[in-house]
Amino acid sequence: MRRSRGLTAALALSLAGAGTGLGLVLMPEASAITPPVAFTADELPTWQPNGVVFAMEQANGTVFAGGTFSAVRPPDGAGGAEQEAVNFAALDAGTGSPTSCKLAFTVSDGSATVRALAVSKDKKTLYAGGYFGAVNGTPVSSLAAIDIESCTPKASFHPGVPATVRALDVTDDTLYVAGDFGTVDGQTRERFAAVDAASGALKPFTANADEPGRAVKVSNDGKHVLLGGDFFAVNGANSHALAVVDATTGAVTKTYANIPSNSVVKHISADATGYYTGNEGSGGGVFDGRLGLNLDFGEKWRDRCLGATQYVLPHDGVLYSSSHAHDCSTELEFPDGKRHFFLAQPTDHTGAAPAPVDGFVRGPRKLGWHPTANDGVGEGIGPRVMSVAEKGGVKYLWAGGEFTLVNGRPQQALTRFASTGDIGAPTTPVASAASVKPGEAQVRWRTSYDQDDSKLTYRIYRNGSATPVHTMTADSLEFERPQASWTDTTVKAGQSYTYRVTATDAAGNTSALSANASVTVPVSVQAYPEKVRADGAQLYWRYDDTVSPYVADSSDGGNTSGIQVNAPALRQSPGAVSGTSTAMGFNGTSQQVHSDHRQFVGSSFTIETWFKTNTTRGGKLIGFGNNTVNTSGSFDKQLYMTNTGRLVFGVYNGSARTISTGLFETYNDNKWHHVVGTQGPGGMTLYVDGQNKGTHSATTSTAYAGYWHVGGDNLSGWPSRPTSNFFAGQIDETAVYPSALTQAQVKSHFDLAKAPTDTVAKVAVSEDTYINQGAPGTAYGTSSSLAVRGTSAYETYLRFTLPAAPAGQVLKAASLQFKTSTQTGAGTADTVSVVPVTGTWSGDGTTFNTKPTLGTTPLGSIAGVPDGSAVQNVELDTAAVSAVLGGSYSLGLTGTGTDPLWIWSSESTAADAAPQLVLTFGQK
Questions:
Q1: Which among 856, 904, 911 is positioned nearest to 880, based on CA atoms?
Q2: CB count in 10 Å sphere of residue 332
Q3: Extended beta strands in 455-506, E state
Q4: CA dihedral 326, 328, 334, 338 (to 10 degrees)
Q5: Backbone angles phi, psi at 752, to 5 degrees
Q6: What pLDDT band is residue 316 in, cutting at 50, 70 and 90?
Q7: Would you say 331 and 345 are in contact if contact means Cβ atoms under 8 Å apart?
Q8: Coil, strand or helix: which one is 533?
Q9: Full-model pTM
């Protein structure tokens, strides 16, 4: 939002602490970012003023910065002494260090400031505007011309401008000026003027405005000038904040009436395809974003993000902007919340532009470039100006303003980003895995965030292998990190698998491996979750997650994960449905989960969840709203509980349309209940525990973009509104469908919640050792490794304490799991067999000389094991293992060839090292 409309701002400045160093950085020779973004988001060491930078220009590899400050100091942590810099600094574009050019902009009365800079077309003259009376002692009047080569003011250039100059633009022979003045050289020129670029003599150009001028830009053909500012009229013609005038006379050639009266234009820029404005405002209904104009000055798009845009810089088809954008809901991007100080978007839409909304075409979608900053000092605006400079074949995007932090590190008023040298790795993926039927395991993760790469490459590693089992790409932005997923169809029923995921950007920077995500593939279909998926759920949260803040989506391709807010309680057991799936606990005051990306909801939908509570304060179970962490302003399509425990399903289509359970039908009895709300062509229906509790004829709801919320969000104004917006209790098995489920489908879901499911037992080895024919008297019970080979013989022995089958179940599958060690050549080309051990043995005492006898019938085998430390599974004879359940059982690993297998023992500290049995029990 706009902070001030004052004519000048006096800043109290203090000298910053001294530092040392030149800030020289050698750029890597190669880098890669996601096109069309041209710069990394990695800030480079740059000398920093002790105040605010308001103006910036560049020429011949030098960047000029003007503002309100008294000194520049080295980057934090670098060597070097602070240098005097009175409202102006010249810096090497490639090193970020001051050059030998020193100019002091001073005034005898008040606080001097430099507010505008422009460079002549031949790169020989620097023009400066602001509020000052001298440059290096040479008298001037708020406007000066500097010879760049000698770094000296041109004494003969001396237009008389009695008030602050805020913007400049220059042609071969004319300098256009905008600001707060009412006269120039004693002649009336209200807020805009033109002077001879060489002599400073006032030109006839007259474009008088009633309020300050803040921006000026000559058209590409040189025939017109675009004016921006606070004004409501130019030369008597009504035109607020933006106008186009004749470049020679100043006569108005185009007016604008569609910028809100409480908004102004702060900057205007151009490229070969059109013109762009940066805008700010104050109060409700402001225009704080960016305009894209055609070459004929007609509007082609309007980005209505809120957050005081200060500067717009087109470069190679991308519009970079400095602002503190905090709400881009109108652009279907991030909702009101955190501030985004740097943005990038294409200068125009690719292909056909979207249809107008509220009379305006949305701006092009934001790109993956997100350096961070802060409000900083002064007005707390953040970054104010930008410029692109080139040095040594590398382009640098410079930014100046009020910030004191860049990417979370101390850096005041100036920063820069290069076109090469991307060194920032993506964030580490947060992964999980699940399987609801034999032959499939779903691996899913919240996509990572990289400040300057929106398309990342993900590699999935299975069972600890160093070679990925799958590689894929997925898109993500700082404010939109949807779930990505992959289904492994090579898994076997009854076996356990672990998965880890990395993210790599286009420059090759790779994240750390995600934490292990483990899953055991069932031997029979899990009836409830498979039915939810088969019925078309596009969001399915089962709440089996082990880490915050990710909630995995188990739907078939929906990829709408959830983000936990304020740390709800994880893995609450028992859950609502049979099996080992867990629920999530909510405190009723601040905790919720919201979906990971903005979406629209169609005219037909179903929302479904299970809950358990004894609250008397009610709260929202699930609903749709237009914000994420902050309270939604638009919200409906919701299921909520009243204080007395009644359930309400409601939508909004001009007024609230609701269905409630009966006066005495309350559900805050601390038992699990199933609630479903549907809307479609037949109207609305509310179901509880498989039963129809009421209908409503409404077939529509208000269409808006938003997010799904579970556990809390706004309920203001809704019938029987509970005391709390937030729900206190447990929630499980939440699903959203793009259609209205039938009563038969709803009843089926309710009934299947108690359907039998597999029981999985993982039994770690209790004792292990191996024998070595080459050292026949040595026992290896304390070794961290185990070995298998035919000749000369290595044999491994494993002891397990097996559980009995759960009541009513039998063993359906059994497998042995072990992990190859990290030593070179740990795998084998030979077949390894698993056999029962029929003799006695112990880890401490068994040697080759005392080895036990083994059974002759293998329980299972594996035909070769690849090199590289990874978990291997060997399917075992189910009948043979069933016969020994409930007691101690020993297995031997034997080989027939000469290529040894080395695996970790229970003594190893490596991850997933100890051998284990995976036993899957099911119904008889």
A1: 856
A2: 16
A3: 455-462, 470-475, 483-488, 496-504
A4: 0
A5: -70, -10
A6: very high
A7: no
A8: helix
A9: 0.91
